[in-house]
Design a protein that fits this description.
- This protein has 10 helices and 4 strands, in the order ααβαβαααααβααβ.
- The chain has a 4-stranded parallel beta sheet.
- It is an alpha/beta fold.
- Strand 1, helix 3 and strand 2 form a beta-alpha-beta unit.
- The N terminus is likely disordered.
- It is globular, with a radius of gyration of 19 Å.
Length: 236
């Protein structure tokens, strides 16, 4: 998430489990801890903790944008550079849908389902090795979203259900933003789909690219500008 790509965070079910009985969005919380570490330690490396800029691309770009809405009371970062990813463009799971994904895996592993005790399910899941857990995740029926089914989930703490309202009321970190997208970011998904034997028309991919990357970047830039935030938009 930072410009050096030095930090790592949990992904898939490990970062975004969807359990109704546990903390979700662990991957985004990992990123926040990384930013806090940079704040506390960067001076020792000759850096300036008052000039931290967060950069991310694709899902990382969305992570940067999620951050701008989640940490308004303690921003730490002085600026943001999301590339080809926004909170709205890539979307998020509802708590209900995330729970369904979670229980699909827990039931496959014999740890229980939606009718079972949540704490008991977690205790059982913690006895399973990561390869068993990963192999129990159903394969996505579509390779368009090849990153998998588990992801940022609405908890109204870190990931919200009302980004439009928060944007209109200026409820986000108002610090400089350089935002944009690769001209044809959707081309990556086109290639991945083709490799999986799934083919769609050029019109489909052009629309996909506009809806998921280009238009959300434009909208997010306009949100910042409307709130008087220094904003630059690029198309790479």
């Amino acid at each position: 998430m930072d410009s050096t790509k030095a930090s790592s965070y949990r992904l898939n079910i490990f970062g975004f489990p969807g359990s109704p009985s546990a903390t979700n969005n662990l991957g985004l919380l990992d990123q926040r801890l990384a930013v806090e570490w940079v704040r506390d330690n960067i001076a020792a490396f000759g850096g300036d903790p008052s000039r931290i800029t967060l950069f991310g691309q694709s899902a990382g770009g969305a992570s940067v944008d999620y951050y701008t809405y989640a940490w308004t009371s303690d921003p730490i970062a002085a600026g943001f550079i999301p590339e080809s990813g926004t909170a709205v463009g890539l979307g998020q799971l509802s708590a209900t849908n995330a729970a369904k994904l979670w229980f699909n895996v827990t039931s496959t592993l014999g740890c229980g389902n939606a009718t079972s005790n949540g704490d008991s399910i977690l205790a059982c899941m913690r006895t399973k090795n990561y390869t068993s857990i990963l192999s129990s995740i159903p394969k996505s029926s579509s390779s368009v979203f090849a990153s998998g089914s588990f992801g940022p989930t609405v908890d109204d703490k870190v990931v919200f259900s009302d980004y439009t309202n928060r944007s209109l009321t200026g409820n986000f970190i108002k610090r400089p933003m350089l935002i944009g997208n690769a001209d044809y970011e959707g081309g990556l998904f086109k290639v991945v789909s083709a490799l999986a034997g799934q083919f769609y028309s050029d019109d489909f991919w052009n629309t996909f690219n506009q809806q998921v990357f280009t238009c959300p970047a434009s909208a997010r830039a306009n949100i910042s500008i409307a709130n008087g935030v220094p904003t630059w938009r690029y198309r790479w």
